[in-house]
Amino acid sequence: KKLSSTMLKALSVSIVFVLTSLPANAFAPAISTSSTPLPSTTQLYAENGIWNTAGSFGKGKFRFYNGLQSYMEPFPDEDRELYPEMFNLPKGVYEVPLAKPCGILFEEIEPNRGVFVQGLVEGGNAARQGVLQDGDVLVGVTAIQISGAKWERRMIPAKKFGFDLVVSAIGSNEEKWGCNNVILMVERPGEADREEVDKFLEFFEPPSDTPWKLPV
Predict the structure, then answer these.
(1) CA atoms within 13 A on the CB side of 215
(2) Looking at the DSSP assignment, which residues form a beta bridge with residue 150?
């Protein structure tokens, strides 16, 4: 029986990831929609949250994302008091670290724009972990970006990613970059407030003066 193109795509994610070699401009900054700047007295604003620019790329405390809690540890109590919503995942959003292959069947929401969990491979890593559910929408994924001899692993907003870009981002989390997993961030319909999630994700949007180039 001939497999549909959707099933072929799903199988390519669940069984074998095509580990593409990502050029320095493989990812690009989405335009930030934030209209309310943070006070300049806070570290959140002073460091643009987490981003390294120019010669600081690949350096510092925020060069490797390994989960929200550990990632936000460098920020002072002042920021935690002023912006408590930035230090916890929004309701209905789940952060899921997974070894590869993940065992997830992704399907595009629209052609080349957004993916959701269509199913889990029986006995696969995602199914054994037990967090992801059918219908969960991918809103973030860790990815490796390389610039010259330097590299970083960041959590990147993925609501606009098509299937192929999701596969590339997941595949970039290789052991040679110190990755023993890929971290997915998903939104669960019926639990999450989309506006709240979108506002939270603005913190992770790459600014234009970094090497991150997302073709979306």
Answers:
(1) 13
(2) 147
